[in-house]
Structures are given as structure tokens and as C-alpha cells.
Amino acid sequence: MLSRGYSSSDTPVESIWFYSEMERRGIKPNKLTFPFLLKACASFLGLTASRQIQVEVLKMGLILMCMLGII
């Protein structure tokens, strides 16, 4: 999980770049991708990026899955 590694590095913004590349190439994220992206956003105060990630989480229905205890 490169996203996880980038989110804990000295350059957490690379995690967002990596996610953007995944999207551009048509690679679908999974439920483990988003917590590390949000961690990266918190590290560099990426409010705009964190809002965009939240929208993606909602689109994928992951919030409902968390509430139901599925993930």
C-alpha cells in the first residue's frame, strides 16, 4: 500500500498524488485506501483534498457500510 507509506512519510501530499494517478488510470480504491488519504490530508492541512476524498467515500457507500458494521 503505497498510499499508506506516503501518508506516514515526510511528504504526505504524495499520497494524494498517488491516489490521483490511481483514478486517472482507472484503478478503483478500496476501503483501506481512504483512511490513509485522510491522514495525509490532516498532516498537511489539505482541507480541499479531504473534502474531495469525503465525497468519494460517500459515493462508494463506505459510510453506510461502517455504520452497519460491515467494514
UniProtKB/TrEMBL annotation:
InterPro entries, per the entry: TPR-like_helical_dom_sf
Source organism superkingdom: Eukaryota
Stated name of the protein: Pentatricopeptide repeat-containing protein
Organism of provenance: Arabidopsis lyrata subsp. lyrata
High-level lineage: Eukaryota, Viridiplantae, Streptophyta, Embryophyta, Tracheophyta
